[in-house]
Design brief:
single chain, 60% strand, mainly beta, elongated
Length: 119
């Protein structure tokens, strides 16, 4: 089992910044991918950004250049620095941890943290 605890959400005005953090604990495999997803009311959950334990990153097009994902492997923590926030970034942001070990797939989600961007 892996537990994920998110923090850093809140209310911010358009153009502002927030930094999310997600700390993983439990049965952590060294090779894993952590990421952020978001879900706005009435919409499907969508990818925001992912980062592998080796540091490879992937971003949703609409956040490129504004959001930066990073991680501290020693702390098993992933961060999402969100700059130039827009009202359309308003959503519940979820942390996800995945790993493939000996052909077994592991996937865990955090409880979510609300991000609200006012216009």
């Amino acid at each position: 089992q892996v537990q994920l605890v998110e923090s850093g959400g809140g209310l911010v005005q358009a153009g502002g910044s927030l930094r999310l953090a997600c700390a993983a604990s439990g049965r952590i495999f060294n090779r894993n991918t952590m990421g952020w997803y978001r879900q706005a009311p009435g919409k499907q959950r969508e990818l925001v950004a992912t980062i592998t334990s080796g540091g490879n990153t992937n971003y949703f097009d609409s956040v490129k250049g504004r959001f930066t994902i990073s991680r501290d492997n020693a702390k098993n923590t992933v961060y999402l620095q969100m700059n130039s926030l827009k009202p359309e970034d308003t959503a519940v942001y979820y942390c996800r941890w995945t790993a493939v070990v000996s052909a077994n797939w592991y996937e865990y989600w955090g409880q979510g943290t609300q991000v609200t961007v006012s216009s």
